[in-house]
Amino acid sequence: MVELMIGISRDLPEEDEIQVEKKKKKPLDLEQAMPLLLQAFEDGNIDTIINPRLLKVYDPKEATRMVTCATACVNHLAHRRPRMSQMVVPLNTWVLISYFKLAYNILRRPDGTFDRHLAEFQDRRVPANRTPVDGVFSFDVIVDRATSLLTRVYRSAPGGEAHPSIVEFERPLSTEIVPVIIFFHGGSFAHSSASSAIYDTLCRRLVGICKAVVVSVNYRRAPENRYPCAYDDGWAALNWVSSRPWLRSGRDSKVHVYLAGDSSGGNIAHHVALRAVESGIEILGNILLNPMFGGQERTESEKRLDGKYFVTIQDRDWYWRAFLPEGEDRDHSACNPFGPNGKSLEGLKFPKSLVVVAGFDLVQDWQLGYVEGLKRAGQEVKLIYLEQATIGFYLLPNNDHFYSVMEEINNFVSSNC
Amino acid sequence: MKRERPDTGGGGCSMEAGKSKMWKEEDGGMDELLAVLGYKVRSSDMADVAQKLEQLEMVMGNAQEDGISHLASDTVHYNPSDLASWLGTMLSELNPPPNFDPPAQQTQPRSITPLVESSSLYDDPSDYDLRAIPGGAICRQIEPPSTALREPKRMKPSSASSETELTRPVVLLDSQETGIRLVHALMACAEAVQQENLKLAGALIKQIGLLAVSQAGAMKKVATYFAEALARRIYRLYPQESLDSSFSDLLQMHFYETCPYLKFAHFTANQAILEAFAGKNQVHVIDFSMKQGMQWPALMQALALRPGGPPSFRLTGIGPPQPDNTDALQQVGWKLAHLAETIHVEFEYRGFVASSLADLDASMLDIRPGEAVAVNSVFELHRMLARPGEIEKVLGSIKAMGPEIVTVVEQEANHNGPVFLDRFTEALHYYSTLFDSLEGCGVSPASTQDQVMSEAYLGRQICNVVACEGVDRVERHETLGQWQTRMGSAGFGSVHLGSNAFKQASMLLALFAGGDDYRVEENNGCIMLGWHTRPLISTSAWKLAKKDPE
């Protein structure tokens, strides 16, 4: 890669560099090339090292990434070479997710307790904002005083109005169908909240892309609140949403509800949908992004990918131990819905599902097993398998997976119109 | 390494999402995508940060299982948005630098002990807060390699997502029919006032009165106060500002007892002051908000318990003139002197009467060479915004006092916008949240009285925001972002409050009824206390910014 890009050090005569390579069979002199590479990288001017034969016709961004990769790969100290994970995500994504990984390691104590105060201190939050930003405004609602259950509602600004007044918040939706997506944030049941910046940003994007209302649920977290608290909160939020007159839309004037979530949020979406089915509340669809499922068995993907792409079996185990009732193992139906303790969905009017699985997610075998379980029960499910994706790809809009998945979600919620 | 650029004051940065320049971005080279998520990493530092992350992972992996637990329990974390400096701290914690000092400087692993031992929080107000801040207030002497940690930061006005507009937060309680109609009526009335349609406004006031009767709880009380304030504005029955200051002090004391806001304010400000006084033998606190001196017993206790013994402690308390000539300031001083004697802290006190903080001058305060000065202001600075030039004068005289630290506690709200209707709306949301948090405090008759007085305390603020104008409107609250800009422009640099202050404040709150619903939040080195997701007050700490070498 280095050779392709920069040709060769300047000491060689000016000829077609690659041909020179083949003729003279002289390996690229890394000792000479390295300082040039590093200097160019620091200066921010890669023109000095790019093969002049390219006549400066190249995409600076692509070239920069190649330089970064090349520089890193030929680094003489093997332990300083980048991990595999660094090769498959943009650098800023890698930094973000690696930071979470390490910061979260410190929060989890070996005895199963969690440093909640430090976690709250570190969580980057944003307040709700009734001033529209990029056409989306938000406000928080206390849905259940007893449990302090709060949801953050995101809506498009009505007719471009600068500051929707308080009455506008509960203005009914249009006669066009407006999907209402109840969103459960991720965090492996222990981390984050509805006001976390990463999720506030994601919810705002969903509003814009899907022309939907998003209701993000601030469910109670583990280990302080184990199963079934998160599901109870999801259920309470669903009931609240379904009974809001101002969330009705369409000519049939009803609330068009979808459930969505990433990681633990995906798991919650499944279980809330299950309760809904048993109670007759209609849900039009489930959207599960890298949903968190597991089981006692160690699957092939877990063994193969353990520790390779930000996530370890050990941390997954910790979070399940923190969420599941004491003494239960990972074949509990919350963790393993189609496992030995799961129940069959055959004959039930379960909503259609959109399940997104990342190819570098170590729990993918469980996620794929979930999809199979739905199919076996005759339920409608669409699987999107992203080979080159890691966890968290949807947090930053800097990769193709992000855009393709957003598009799929949009199609999923508009196809009922 | 990092070039300090002159502060551009308010709103000087453009954040057009379309332009993503590769190397040099308008906003100081920060990676835009991470900034939106609350993380500040310069694009040019990204590779270096990545390398440090790898390094940290390796070191953490090498440590034994509980070899990293001290990173959570003992290490003080600062400004979690700054990944580079966080990494620096973590790496130095796990790899002490070669010139690490002998055990004398190494603090033992300290557990965070709760603030209150056994005494209840609802004691007689004349019984001072004799609770010490746990010894962990003073941070470790180890400086992390990164110099960014405690440097005065270039303050940007609020977060990346709301560069030009102020954030308008709101938490709704689940709407009841009449609740919404009542709010609607209040808003309509305010709008009529805005448009000077006083006839309509008057009619709406009557309607509000009827609706309020059928309400219950916080909503009813808030509506009543706002309606009264509107009525005063409409009929020009402006409230008398010159109420006996001892009465307003009394109201504030009830507010102090009922809910944690003032205690939080005192606690967090004291943390910062303690840290700034580390290693100093003569300290002098200048308190702009003396009142009954409720903040100081705890600080004095903490100073008394300091390893190495307490410094000599001077306190200058500033307060307004008393109409009946009683020397309230001096009486407070006597009480504190008595306390100081019992805990063996060398104490000197001076009460200083001033009608306005703008009348103050550093030279009047007898600041002695060699003493470390702290200036403390709790809910006072915003009053200076009522007359042009006053805040600048006050900030200037603070600078002239040469303080080690300036602690500022303010309401987290924008009640000082130019448009009446906006102020009204903001205040309505703000005080609704505050009143909601007071509900459920009045269980016993004594605490019911506390609650009523607290509501009256807040009601006076509401009245001032809504009914008054010009120099009479002194409750000119502004947001943390606005204060940060102002302090930055005036030549102050931010001193970050860390995770130890955060944790201890969180634990303090857990002791209050409804503790779950109070939230402590870290924001750009400052700490805020709110109810549910709505921040209500903020504590920030400042020092004199170093002059730019360029």
Total number of distinct structural domains of chain A: 2
Instruction: Please give the share of residues in helix of chain A.
Output: 25-40%
CATH superfamily descriptor of one domain in chain B = Vaccinia Virus protein VP39
Instruction: Quote the average pLDDT of chain A.
Output: 86
Percent helix of chain B, as a range, is: 40-55%
Question: From the alpha-carbon coordinates, what is the Rg of chain B to the nearest angstrom?
Answer: 24 Å
Oligomer: heterodimer
Instruction: Look up the CATH topology of one domain in chain B.
Output: Rossmann fold
What would you call the shape of chain B? globular
Indicate the CATH architecture of the largest domain in chain A.
Answer: 3-Layer(aba) Sandwich
Major β-sheet annotation of chain B: 9 strands, mixed
Q: Total number of β-strand segments of chain A?
A: 8
Annotated CATH topology of the largest domain in chain A: Rossmann fold
- State the helix count of chain A: 14
The CATH architecture assignment of one domain in chain B turns out to be 3-Layer(aba) Sandwich
| Major pleated sheet of chain A | 8 strands, mixed
- Most extensive chain interface and residues per partner: A-B, 65 and 73 residues
Mean pLDDT of chain B: 81
> Which class do the helix and strand fractions of chain A yield?
alpha/beta
In total, the number of strands of chain B is 10
Main location (chain B): nucleus
Function (chain B): Transcriptional regulator that acts as a repressor of the gibberellin (GA) signaling pathway. Probably acts by participating in large multiprotein complexes that repress transcription of GA-inducible genes.
Family (chain B): Belongs to the GRAS family. DELLA subfamily.
Subcellular location (chain B): Nucleus
